[in-house]
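Re: weekly structure request thread

Next one in the queue (100 aa):
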Amino acid sequence: MNTRLSDIRDSFEGVIPSVIATTGADGMPNISYLSHVHYIDERHVALSNQFFSKTAANVRDRGVATLMVVDGRTGRQHILDLRFLHSTTEGEFFEGAASH
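Done, posted below.
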């Protein structure tokens, strides 16, 4: 069953931190916690670069990550397979996300 991102938006609020898992070029796993995952649209989420530099480098280098988000009201967990598209360091979305 495919769950729509809009149906799990409560899971992105950070009541329960999300967990991001990546691997380095050498296959070494890396796990970090995120307080917010930002809903963009039905096919896109944004992650703030608040996690450790190793995780950010793995995402840039490998282009993929797995993210577990948890609904703070129900405890339901959702696993997202992510593909890196691009990063941004300015603009309206960046400013709004940086204020969280």
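The longest strand covers residues 64-70. The CA atoms of residues 11 and 71 lie 4 Å apart.
Next request, please.
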